[in-house]
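Hey team,

Filing this mostly as a record. A colleague (T.K.) asked me to run one chain through the structure pipeline before their review meeting, and I want the input and output archived in the tracker in case anyone asks later how it was produced. No errors, nothing strange. Just documentation.

Input sequence:
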Amino acid sequence: MSLLRSALFSTPLIALCTIFMGTLSLIASFFDRTGKSQHALARVWGKMLLAVSFMRVSVVGLEKLDPRGTYVFVVNHGSFMDIPALLATLPQEFRFFAKKGLYSIPFLGTHLRRAGHLPVDRSSPRASLKSMMEAARIIGGRGISVLNFPEGGRSEAGLREFKEGPAYIAIKAGVPVVPVAIVGARELLPMGSGHLKSGRIVVRVGDPIPTEGMEAAARLELTQRLHERVSQLMSMR
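Output structure:
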């Protein structure tokens, strides 16, 4: 029954919602070059996708964040529904990193670029460093948070090793880095599956870790600490 609902109801509506909200976002970008309006529309888009997929999202630990604060969020990644869940729950305006190849996709690439999200070219260390410096500049100069999936992509199970980029960005910007765990999304839409199952997703926000005064050389230790924190949040019951 859920497979039929997914194929005949949820999936077509997700496509329609994405086209409709993406068009509104593109139009908004001509009047608002800050990306604020696009982010607000993305929040609505995320909630729409969760609703038509019959997925309920709850958040734990939101009181640990200052609604006006700026952070680097570090999150595990196991499903395409992770971003809608984060958009629906985190109060901060944030930009995220996206694979460079996504920017060449018509419509999607235009939206990512005009909304101010950051391309990542993993084949070029120099380009990756440039993206990280740009993220630090966005945080410091515009007061906008950054969200990163440090596993480098979706994982089928467990938690893969973290890359050092988010820790480096947080240290350079001098802002707290926040471990966040998404629990349940992978089970509702597994990697490589088109079958959307109804159910509950929990977003768990950990304690912010201050980075002010840290040297860039501390990024490896900080990365390991973040991996431990996210793993602990994922295993909580």
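Quick notes for T.K.: The CA atoms of residues 57 and 104 lie 31 Å apart. The domain at 2-235 is CATH 3.40.1130.10 (Glycerol-3-phosphate (1)-acyltransferase).
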